[in-house]
């Protein structure tokens, strides 16, 4: 990690209400405030500029999917989970081994997913 730059959780979510709720859950669970990206482009820029240690990706982002972000996270060796209201339908075969947190979910569901698939809380 670069000096003066804190590791972060990246949240990729295009619905602002859901992004704020997810931020509240993460804070409640003891994590720092996440970096929120609404688009694939914003998420990829964040990965280039920040020390991301874990990511939570909504699969459907308006007219695009978060799969390019997942591919980049895989290349960087950064753990992540998907969130969706649609289940595993439409997830490419190469990404089906990743955990999918079904919407709607609560803080306890998120805690269990992070404990099993991500870093420990700060």
Automatic annotation (TrEMBL):
Keywords: Phosphoprotein. Gene3D superfamilies: 3.40.50.2300. SMART domains: REC. InterPro entries: CheY-like_superfamily, Sig_transdc_resp-reg_receiver. GO terms for biological process: phosphorelay signal transduction system. The modification 4-aspartylphosphate is found at residue 58. This is Response regulator.
